[in-house]
Amino acid sequence: MKKITDPIVTLPGVGPKRAENLLELGLATVEDLLAYYPFRYDDIQEKKIAEIADQEKVVLKGLVVAEGVVSHYGYRKNRLSFRLMHDHAVINVTFFNQAYLKDKIVLAEEIAVYGKWDAKRKALTGMKILGSRDESGADFAPIYHVNKKIRQATLVNLIKSGFAEYGDLIEEWLPAALVTKYRLMPRQEAMRAMHFPEKAEDSLSARRRIIFEEFFEFQMQMQQLRYQEKEISQGLEILYDVEKLKEFTQGLPFELTAAQKRVTNEICRDLRSATHMHRLLQGDVGSGKTVVAAIVLYAAVTAGFQGALMVPTEILAEQHLESLVDLLEPFNVIVALLTGSTKTKERREILEQLADGRLDVVIGTHALIQKDVEFKRLGLVITDEQHRFGVNQRKILREKGANPDVLFMTATPIPRTLAITAYGEMDVSIIDELPKGRIPIETRWVRPPQLETVLTWMEKELKAGRQAYVICPLIEESESLDVKNATEIYETLQAFYPHHQVGLLHGKMKPQEKEEIMTTFKENKMQILVSTTVIEVGVNVPNATTMLIMDADRFGLATLHQLRGRVGRGSQASYCVLVANPKNEMGSERMKIMTETTDGFVLSQKDLEMRGPGEFFGSRQSGIPQFAVGDIVADFATLEAARQEAVAIWGIEKWWQEPDYLSLKNRLFDETQAKNFFD
Length: 679
Ligand code: ADP
Ligand code: MG
Hints:
- The chain has 679 residues and is of the alpha/beta class.
- It has 23 helices and 20 strands.
- The strands form four sheets. Strands 10-11-9-12-13-8-14 form a seven-stranded parallel beta sheet, sandwiched between helices.
- About 3% of the residues have low confidence.
């Protein structure tokens, strides 16, 4: 029997070779093919000239009123020009170096040209000649992402035959109530209209339906994770000693901010409750997350549990060790460090002590999640900068204990739009306030020729006993990118500041070398640290007051914000200087925003708007899913509606047993999943 999930080779015209090429586009089944939507449509409709913006890419259709003329110029360059009657006007059309198109331009025949509109000259620079309406049969031609092996026309034909053979098998899986409530186009009709809309409105309603569908499916999965974390997995009751905890917080050298108090309470409530904690702690750089981590680790220890803190780099692990030892040891908590460079003998001892319970808290890198690391009674796991850890690594660490409570900390403020998408299965606590008395960091943007002036100014800071970071984007000279070489800058600075010590830190160094350099810098035996972005996360040197970033436009806002957060950690006024000659509008915009705000949440929202969710955080590991059609910024309202509906359904006890949700259940779970989950 035919099924929509049949392999794509079952379609006529698809042999093993073509199937392989289609697989490169991620298309394995007929359903994949039918759901491979165009990323845009060529609009072959009449458009009034007055409605076209300058430089807009459009399709103009009209009668050829003057034949094509080819003229040659320069070295092997040519230009093909002709005239087109469109919307009662005669338009000049020019194609560069495509003289071979001349034959397609026939006097008094209709033609459609895709190109860029020059409003001043009333002319079109042609990019492509399209089939006329009579050929394609519609005003909209779908345009797909293709590769060298599969052409647009091939894909269109395959999709057409896919619909002919399998179109009737497309089933609705959204609950009928939602289809009605949101007036959604039925699935079969929507999938077809995504490819071959007859009019613009069709394509819009089809998109609305498909976007809702993909957001809803995603939110259902998020809510399922949440359900599994909370309802199914038995959590620990960490009955900490309230009195001891009070004593601990009162012993701190400062009063907690209201936000710190609030999040500490939220976390402590989770610890105490028997449900499993799965919480994200967000707070801008310097908002005081480490102290909160110390408090809740101490809480776990007072209840007889062990705690683990996992961080992405050895430098960070070292630093956290320092702060936590300071805070925790006076209260008789035994803290140890476990990283990749822990010596064998020491490592063996630490493993023993973790296993027999002599160690209370361990801080470490990935070394914490190796097989032979065992805990006696792991109760709380905290990961810092969680987006750098893969889901699997977190899972392994979690499995080391009897399902310990888990807290993820991140200094990368995530706009709410992203938070509910990427971390929708978690509870979220936010520290939205900085400790009192901080002097805001002053940020300046200068052009490269002003560098010398900046360096002269910086000397004053150095003479006053302060330190500075200088950040360069890459370590190796890459001619194509024209990026400044960190070593070169290092040498330049050495020459510029003969009376100060300059150090160099980069990603290619061994951990131990890095460590030594960081220590030298921390101890102020070195005043200037030239570095690539390895220091991006978390280092704390309060005496450093200047952050100088070279080629700053090459960094995303999130990274710039992180880098800037390295200064302004002491009581002195601090500065961030961005040296940049941005190559485009976006680069300039980023520099401007940086000088205008130091609020991480504002910056991250801007970043999201400017770069789009896919590029956010500069990587795809951020845990933010890629949607085929929906855009979590532009379609935020739909995302939110989909979330509310998913929450409502998961709120129904055993919803999967309801006949109304049968097709939804079948869509979300295959047979084995269903069995594991519902039994
Ligand atoms: P984060 O980890 O969020 O970047 P930290 O925990 O490193 O921030 O805190 C930054 C600095 O602020 C540290 O030196 C810390 O001791 C200090 N700090 C934290 N909380 C407070 C507070 N409530 N009042 C004053 N200083 C604080
Ligand atoms: Mg608990």
